[in-house]
Model the fold of this input.
Amino acid sequence: MNPPSKRKCSDTADISEEVLPVELHKEKLLQVIRDNQIVVVCGETGSGKTTLLPKFLLDSNFVSPSRKLCVTQPRRVAALSVASRVAELLNTKLGNAVGYSVRFDEKLSSSTAVKFMTDGKLLHECLSNPTLEGYGIVMIDEAHERSLNTDVLFGLLKQLVLYRKDIKVIISSATLDADKFSAYFRGCPVFKVEGRLHDVKIFYTKQEQSDICEAAVQSVLQIHHSQPKGDILVFMPGVDEISRTESSLMECDQDLEIVTLHGQKNLDEQQLIFRPSSDRKVVLATNIAETSITVPNIVHVVDSGMVKEKHFESLNLVRCSQASAKQRAGRAGRLNPGICFRLYTSSIFETMPAFSKPEIMRTNLQTVLLLLLSMKIDIFNFEMIDSWSSDSFYSSLKCLYALGAVNKDAELTKLGRILVEFPTSPEVAKLMVVAMETKFLEQATIVAATVPEFSRISKHFRKAFSAGSNPEGDWGELISSFLYIKKSLKAGSSSSNRNYNKHLNSFKGVVQTQDQLVQLCSRLSKTICTTSFKYNPTTFEDCAKLSFPLKTADRNNDGTYTLKQDGSKALIHPSSVLANRAPRKIVYCDLLYTSKQFLLCCMPLS
Done:
């Protein structure tokens, strides 16, 4: 059967501003906030909580430049996007009454009364401002995501309200276990914003899909040929799946504009999703698009039902939660009645967990313990909404002790106070500290900036070098690739290959991060010079050994490696340039658990 004739999405009528559900509850909501120190606000996606509640609070004189409203978001792009939208609603220039502050970037002024931040940025601000002086209201948005930083902020705010009776806390989310949060915050009221703007029809597949990328492509083409208007938002689990889907769609030669959205893109690239298009737009995104980022004109959502979650040292592909699936579907009902096509069966949906497992229960705790110790928090009696694993807690303390960040009494050392200043893992932070007074600082900052991008850099740029010939293994390949990328970006892309240029430009953020790390090292160098710890490494290998004391492994006769940290066995991942060289001893940055345990981003040791 032939598909219906196509119509361009430009046929869509202009959509006028509509009254959002939260506007209907404005006065009652403000009264609840006025009467209580802590309030949990629940409302469906698209109800207007994130954008209109800050506007209400400012218009009603709840906040001012001397008593700011701080609104946290789990991700940088969401903080910038919402700040821009609220500034537009208030008819003010971004950076005046409404501003933002994210890592390495901010727009603020003396007149700023509403400040959007990432949860990590506010957590680090607590180091220098533990009582949050200058803030009158703290709003933790998208609380259902239960990020590590958000959970720690909950604990700090629960303590803070006992001492600062003049500060108010708002916990906001579309999909939240409200009763649990209310109980944690001593029985605080829960305000539910009833209603949503538009209905969303949900469709499931009849059977489970073996290839979600192919299924996503077919769904996009079916929508494009059968639906008359509206852009398409596709949720994929990770960057690799987005790249595969993007390549397949671009080969279809359709009048579609394909854009991608994920955390590895720099902020300028992420803003491209908001650019108008005469063609139907297809946005391929990770779960970064589940929350506060509202992509214009989205009417159709395709949901793979999958997400990549960090489980301690590994990144695992798992089913998303029902709460996440509802958030994804809700993206289709922001401007029009929408449709969500789920690439899984209704029976699979019923087996998905109600909520995602909190990050605090599935992640390495080194960074957060270091931060809490820096704030002189009693980490042994810190009350969390969900307790962390005791195994993870003591394993993380053991690692911090091996690094020299804490002493045998779990007290912060001088080195620990330095490491907490870096926006990286403690091991990577120590790598930069060790290299700071040597000729290896540039290499250390490059490794720090590129380790999170290891798989992406290996995939797109390893062919530019002789694979496996670098004596420093994957670390050397990262450094060589980075210098090549930096040089190519500076010279300007001359390749006629559109995909190559796109991948090259996507690494601008990595280059910026390395430059910012160099500046941070320069700022901290004076402090480090006054401390008593001196390392004097003579080689870059010495820097690695000093910085990753527990992440070393020795080769066994069967080709496996025994890990120093726990005595378990692992293999070098096939993507490593060392996979066929099998050095006697290595240092590694990460572990990956699939059918076997693999070592990622490795450097050989003599």
In short: Confidence is low (pLDDT under 50) at residues 1-16. The CA atoms of residues 206 and 345 lie 6 Å apart.
